[in-house]
Amino acid sequence: MKYGIVIFPSKPVQDEINSYRKRYDPHYAMIPPHLTLKEAFEVDDAKITELITELKHIANETEPFDLAVNKVSTFAPVTNTIYLKVEPIQQLYDLAEKMQSGKFPANQMYSYVPHITIAQKLSQDEYSDVYGSLSMKDTRLEDQIDRFHLVYQLDNGIWTVYESFVFGKEYV
Amino acid sequence: MKYGIVIFPSKPVQDEINSYRKRYDPHYAMIPPHLTLKEAFEVDDAKITELITELKHIANETEPFDLAVNKVSTFAPVTNTIYLKVEPIQQLYDLAEKMQSGKFPANQMYSYVPHITIAQKLSQDEYSDVYGSLSMKDTRLEDQIDRFHLVYQLDNGIWTVYESFVFGKEYV
Fold first, then answer.
1. Residue A127: its pLDDT value, please?
2. Which end of chain B has fewer CB atoms surrounding its CB within 10 Å, N or C?
3. pLDDT recorded at residue A71
4. Which residues of chain B lie closer than 8 angstroms to A1, CB-CB?
5. Is residue A136 domain-resident?
6. Predicted confidence band at A41 (pLDDT cuts at 50, 70, 90)?
7. Does B172 reside within a domain?
8. Domain range holding A105?
9. Residue A105: what pLDDT?
10. Mean pLDDT score of chain B, rounded to an integer?
11. How confident is the model at residue A57 (pLDDT cuts 50, 70, 90)?
């Protein structure tokens, strides 16, 4: 089964991010606004049980932290994805790193860039227009994060949550 | 904020149920296939914190159980919703009952009927056609359930998972 690990911001922040995604992100209906900690990976049932125990340990070792967005950025020219750049804080890198080592499959192809996608799969012309107009907007957001979620993908492409991991609150 | 409490069946069962929902359920993209334990209710942040502790206790008191679907049924003439009738087992009624009493707001308007919706908001003609054809299909499904999820609704109508509650595994 195909799994991923994400952080969902709080509802007010998700609602604001959706106002952009609704127009520019074809994955809008596939998953709520999210910050990816670990990109999609394939594992079987036995392995995921093992990884869930690891994820509980990781959650218990993590303190709640503040997340801040100050500007829009882009992965162009690699892809023309436009995203909210999440201020680089150590906790996010630590989380992503722990999910690439030990019992976890290493599946990170590029350096980890904490971000929340708001536009993707645009044509080149659309991309230029949208990036130009989003860059001029005030996209500052702040949030408190105290959990992450293990999600899996259904055949129709939509992601379902399997389990939540609340920092300092997991029973192992 | 508006919350609900649901059970998501396993991926193979969700995929099969989605094959019906895709055609007949306008809520298809709003939430994955689910069995509702407690319908949408409004509570503030302080109250939900209190209810989460209750939900952990409830999860810890519950043993994993088997869920079976044997036929299609309908809420007509109250609404023309068509659903997979979940075999009535005590655990489901106990869960639903606990989420209506104690600290929980009582918001259950009808007797609890364990079901998974596959079609709704159809015109009367569509309803008759769809119910006729679904009634003749073999819709038997079996699954093992070991958790439920607290979900909340975004402004765009899509539901996000806030927290999972795994039977016998919650730290209170």
1. 96
2. C
3. 94
4. 11
5. yes
6. very high
7. no
8. 2-166
9. 97
10. 96
11. very high
Task: Report the C-alpha gap between B65 and B90 in whole angstroms.
Answer: 10
Which of A15, A164, A169 has the CB atom closest to B154's CB atom?
Answer: A15
How many domains does the structure of chain A reveal? 1
C-alpha to C-alpha distances, A42 to A7, A38, A110, B15, nearest whole angstrom: 19, 12, 18, 17
Tell me the pLDDT tens digit for each residue of B73-107.
999 999 999 999 999 999 999 999 999 999 999 99
Residue B125 lies in a domain: yes
- Check CB contact under 8 Å for B170 and A171: yes
pLDDT the model gives residue A108: 94
Find the catalytic residue in A27, A34, A57, A149: A34
Cβ contacts (< 8 Å) between B149 and chain A: which residues?
Answer: 161
CATH no. for residue A6? 3.90.1140.10
| Among A residues 111-150, those touching chain B with beta carbons less than 8 Å apart | 147, 149
**Contact map slice: B 71-100 vs A, CB within 8 A:** none
User: Which of A155, A162, A169 is facing B15, going by the closest CB pair?
Assistant: A155
CA distance A113 to A37: 9
Answer for the pair A13, A33: CB distance below 8 angstroms, yes or no: yes
Locus of tokens 């193979």: B12
> Closest-CA residue in chain A for B7?
A162
B38: in domain: yes
